[in-house]
Input
Amino acid sequence: MQSLKQLNETVPTIYEQMVSRGVDRREFLKFCAWMGAYLGLESSAAAQIAQAIETKRRLPVVWLHFQECTCCSESFIRSSHPIVADILLDKVSLDYTETLQAAAGYQAEEILQDTITKYKGEYLMLVEGSVPLAADGHYCVIAGKSALETVREVAAGAKAIIAWGNCACSGCVQAANPNPTQATPINAIIKDKPIVNVQGCPPIAEVMAGVLVHLLTFDRIPQLDSLGRPKAFYSRRVHDTCARRANYDAGLFVETFDDENARKGYCLYKVGCRGPSTYNSCSTIKWNNGTSYPIQSGHGCIGCSEAKFWDNGPFYQRLTNFPGFGIESTADKIGLTVGGVAAAGALAHAVLTNVRKADTIGEGPGEHAETAEAHHQQQQDEQK
Amino acid sequence: MNGPAPDSHDFQRVYVWEQPVRWFHWINAACIVTLGVTGWMIAHPPALMNSNEASFSYWFGSVRFVHFVAAYVLLVNFLFRLYWSVMGNKYANWRNFFPLTKAQLRQIGDVLKVDVLQFSNKPVETLGHNSMAYFTYTATGLLTIFQILTGFALYAPTSAAWLPQLFTWVTPLFGSEYNVRIFHYAALWLFVVFTIVHVYLVFYHDYVEGHGVISSIVGGWKFMEKNQMAAEQATGMSPFPWRQRRKAKPAPPATPPA
Output
């Protein structure tokens, strides 16, 4: 296998490959402008993106799959733009990926080993799925190696890591309580590499493409929020740009899914919509080539780009079970109980006080309403 | 009646709660009620339906706005009280709020015996709060800090102001904003419990001791039997000697009437 430098001299650039695949110049520039817009860059950045794709040949990529359902890959290859899935990853850069590669068995594993040794420090590690730590990692073993071993091995020489989807970012459904396999996100295992959390179950295809284009263009990871998500796509709540937002501010809510309000397209806040606490681009970029997103289609957001969203159920209830108090214990039930106990305690204490402190509370000499003045006069006289 | 002599209800008037403390109390109370009511409405929006276009109405947005404004007032008021816990009189001093001395701990035990479980009828004579009460206000203060931290963390992403951005580190500690929301809401119930107990206890103390505890938060004055003043167990002193010097300025000489 050649070194990256040697390879770059023989392999056509990404743009050249696009042209050979039948992409014309106009379509290519449209793609660059489109990506720049998604990334929230100024319009001149489209030229930078175009230049990067024209001159850069190859970014070696290893795409690992662990505990996951492949919905991230599925989302990505269904991207509305052919350049994204077909050219950007599939044909040009992907060295190793269990789902899409032609190679199998020893041959596939050999490619992986070759990639991580030859391109040490240069390749990009993409991860889909969480890593089970329970039972010595036996819940997920590929080619005789546990997911944990593979992650550590591949991460050691990676330039950067992209964690695709909720599994790799925060464990998703397999990490839901009680998390029998001890499914663990990548950022809890690898601490010494830059990690981009591309959240969602799955993430939006255009978001995934945007993150890759950013890495390709600028050679550094995009600006991240406090939970490691790219700010370009995760700095706004689904709620902030929601089509039903005006109904929220006007206090017009769907009470049940079969009521008239649902028909009128009112806000889904009271039937459990997680839009107000979910950071994603669903309400701007939307899904399936910008067709729609859950709230537009009449279903509340379930918060799939947030950690532990499976444990925040039921999805159709706004204030859900309070952590640590078992099933069916909302904050309201606990609060009403504690408040009731406090009120009953105060009442009981008041009764007790009147019994136990009757002497203390009662009138002292000279404190009776009718005789107080006379008592005072008498004392004055005595003093004289 | 055991203890005090029959003629003992001869009161000394003491200015316990200075005006800043009283302002703090009532602004804080108003904020907590406002935040509690609006917070409850944000969690459980009432079904106030009308057939107007959504753009003609903004009542739910207004409820949230009132919640945010009250939160700012609560924060500034709270910071002022922290300042006053250094600058105020000995009853407002911060040291009262931390039961670290033997006297304070003993008083907490006495309050448990006398007022809570009522094994004993010997009153605990204090002009400020008793140590137990001070300690519950410490807990309430921590609860207030918790609500400020989680509340402004929730508010930060929708605000361009610098102040809420100081709280963005809170959300990652909870894992997700959803969890912050659940805890921020659940803490409302602790304020409800506090309010029930607090209001009950001021009625209790006013009724049992007759020192004017309820009116003291309006006028500032409390009343103590003169023969009990020596037994008064106020805890905590100002840690700043210069303050005591300033307080100890001599009374103006009595000028004979012209």
Summary: Chain B is about 60% helix and 5% strand. Confidence is low (pLDDT under 50) at residues 244-248 of chain B. The longest helix of chain B spans residues 177-209.
